[in-house]
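User: These chains co-purify. Model them together.
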Amino acid sequence: MPNKLGLPNLGLGLGLRSQHFDHILKKSPEVDWFEVISENFMDSHGRPRQILKQIAERYPVVMHGVSMSIGSTDPLNFEYLKSLKTLADEVNPAWISDHLCWTGVLTTNSHDLLPLPLNDESLQHVCDRINQIQDYLERPLIIENPSTYATFKNSTIPEWEFLRIMTEETGCGLLLDVNNVFVSSFNNDFDPVEYINGLPHDKIVQMHLAGHQNCGNYIIDTHDREVNTQVWKLFQMTYQLASDASILLEWDGNIPAFDVYHSELLKSKKYMDPTFTESAQEKIYADQEQVSNPLNVVSLELTGHSEY
Amino acid sequence: MEEKVTIPLSSFQLWMQQLLLDPYQQTNVDPKSLLQDSFNASSLEAIVHHSKRLTASEHIGIYQRSYIARLRNCMSQQFSALEYALGEDIFCAFADDYLASTPSYNYNLSLLGKHFSDYLEENRPDAAEEIKEDWIDFIIELAKFEYAIGVIFEEKAEEEYQLADLNSDEGKLKLVPICELFKFQFPVRKFYSDFKNEKKPSLPFENESYCVVIRHKFKLAVYDIHKDQYEFLSSLKKGMDIPTAKSKFIENQKVTTAEFENVWTRWKARWIEAKLFRV
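Assistant: Joint model of the two components:
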């Protein structure tokens, strides 16, 4: 059923990871849809892109980017957008998403999702660029709230308010990462429930779930483990406000077998019920700090090492 | 009440990027010097909020650590055999220094290690020594090979073509579109393959080696070849047809046609089986 932006509710999806390519092609698992990291396929003309085309023939696919750099003060990278559009023409994604962030300036790419000061200047800047990008791509863009580890004294607009105005000004949709809200709220001392309540729920096209690492004084958005119970609870609350949204579980580090990954996604069904309860404490991990927003790189396979 | 802080977005981004890329100010660029037209932005603490648990510097420190760790992880995935050869600590030291001197300018992470072998060449530990150490030459060759494998894996090429078989007209045989030849001072292919097959290879001694890497139906295969085969296939890579390449080989190697035809029959059968030839 289409949601309020006219985009379909795709159901429960998983991030497409190269470790699972063969399993998906051989077993055709009952997953509703897959999300792909756009940059892993845009400039690849080898096996990963070939496999993506096969998967896109069998499943709905969404393209999720990490390098559009919507908030950067560098000029828009039309070489990037051209490559993105070419891939979109090939795999016909249900939508294209990226993050409310910047990745670098002076043409440098930090490959991180860096936070913006949220104020009138950045709001106008972001809205102008989203409008340009949507015109170029000829489709609405879906923007995700990033996980953040700092806030700035020249910010004057709460993030949820920034996102609300951004959707009103540009017509873009929201990809609400519930784990990111939890991570950012812990790191930056805000109430995640107030954040969720302040969002324009009718613009939430998709939700992300993921695991994180609680390092005690801060939380890192690691995508390398199961979803934390407190994040599930936040999802449970959010789902009652945005039940049209498609749900996706991200897993980018310590990627488990496909069935483990899928079963974690299916837990979301329990939390769609507002009466479901499960008690657990936030677990603090004493292991080494992991990387935030890990980059999932397509792994390379070599088929023969024969001596000739 | 906190004083109002004003920083143009462009200045803010220059400032923060400088903090990430050069956390120890090795470039002698003071991030503060990049805060043009700002008001009340005299220090990091004046720009970044502290929280209940972390200072402003600790908040930025998370980004600083993640920046280098994330890219280092990518380098270790792109150069996994090299990381094994060098050991994790030395590899990280090289990777960190390379990333500091050569930040990424492209969204395509495959390009991250494009200049790594050049960096190793320019920063070899024995640069000041008159007698060079062998293992460094091996490391540089291995870095070049690992990067080249990644390029071959991703590159755009014609995919719809007919493979040759033993009955194909020899005059019409051509190399498949993705067929790359390598010549090494060391047995790089063997080390790389042994590592990929989890055989824990030791650093090899100098020993000239050759290999060919092909891609067919998006799958890579690598085969050892010997010097004569390398010379012959190099002629084909340059665009020569088989009869011309054969004539050139016979002339250069000073062998008779009959002698070469005897060898060629075996080469051709093996290379057709290995999917080196199309028609």
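The mean pLDDT of chain A is 93.
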